[in-house]
Write a structure and sequence with these properties.
Layout: H1 4-16, E1 21-23, E2 25-26, H2 29-36, E3 44-46, H3 48-54, H4 65-77, E4 83-86, H5 94-103, E5 108-112, H6 118-135, E6 140-144, H7 147-150, H8 156-172, E7 177-179, H9 186-196, E8 201-204, H10 212-218, E9 222-224, H11 228-245
Helix pairs in contact: 2-4, 4-5, 5-6, 8-9
Length: 258
């Protein structure tokens, strides 16, 4: 088992590298092992929405933090690869939540602003960075701004300007990259990269999003998939059940991955 310092340094290196970092989101130990075993996997990221759904909770910090961190720790223990955790908005105490997340083995985190007042959002990032520094672990903070999810009405240009304003402040506090979720088109991505810097923009890939190869060309640093990976798995489960109920059989080629 590699040390947490080594995993942290590797995650930071992956964010600094010129290649797009793709992280396929996982939600439990077995999904982590399946993805980690693939030769192209360099790091893992948890999906808070998916972990919450696993336990029957809605998204949005409704799952108790202890339960969330227990699963995050199981994921981190299932692999030697660096793991980044989605800790939503930090459960009311971003610094303490990051400290506890490091305690279960993670070396990076998503921290969302929920479009809280500017100074509050920046203060949360500051607290998270200071907590990681106090633990002595290299840490990759994927500081998220929800401008494109929550700020309305506004034009895409106005939203991009606000995302850049917040993102620059997050980077100044020590964030590794700025996560701007939403179905972003190429002109918006170009505007964000121009305002934040090459390899500083993190995006979520959803159905209909810009292709990863093009994200690389546009200067995006990181792409993740959020709850969509679990949705793919659940869609396969549902379709298989429908096929069985209709008199069919299990799909040919099904592997024993557990």
């Amino acid at each position: 088992m590699t040390s947490i310092q080594d995993r942290g340094a590797e995650l930071r290196r992956l964010h600094d590298a010129p290649e797009l970092l793709q992280v396929v989101n996982v939600w439990d130990a077995i999904s982590a092992r399946v993805v980690a075993d693939l030769p192209d996997t360099r790091a893992l990221a948890t999906a808070s929405h998916s972990i919450a759904a696993t336990f029957g909770y809605e998204d949005g910090e409704r799952i108790p933090l202890d339960l969330m961190l227990d699963m995050v720790g199981r994921i981190a223990a299932a692999t030697d690869l660096p793991v980044s955790a989605d800790v939503e908005s930090g459960y009311g105490d971003p610094g303490e939540t990051i400290r506890r997340a490091i305690g279960v083995g993670v070396v990076g985190a998503n921290l969302e602003d929920g479009m809280r007042p500017f100074e509050t959002a920046v203060g949360a990032v500051r607290a998270a960075i200071r907590a990681a520094e106090a633990e002595g672990v290299p840490f990759a903070l994927n500081a998220r701004t929800d401008v494109f999810l929550r700020q309305s009405p506004a034009t895409d240009q106005e939203k991009a300007e606000e995302a850049i304003r917040r993102g620059r402040a997050f980077l100044d506090e020590g964030a590794t990259c700025v996560f701007v979720p939403g179905r972003l088109d190429e002109p918006t991505i170009e505007r964000l990269v121009g305002g934040l810097g090459e390899r500083k923009l993190s995006v979520i890939a959803v159905p209909g999003s810009v292709h990863p190869a093009r994200l690389q060309e546009l200067g995006v640093g990181r792409a993740s998939y959020g709850p969509w990976t679990q949705r793919v798995a659940l869609t396969a489960l549902r379709n298989t059940a429908l096929e069985l109920y209709a008199g069919g059989v299990l799909p040919t080629g099904t592997e024993q991955l557990n």
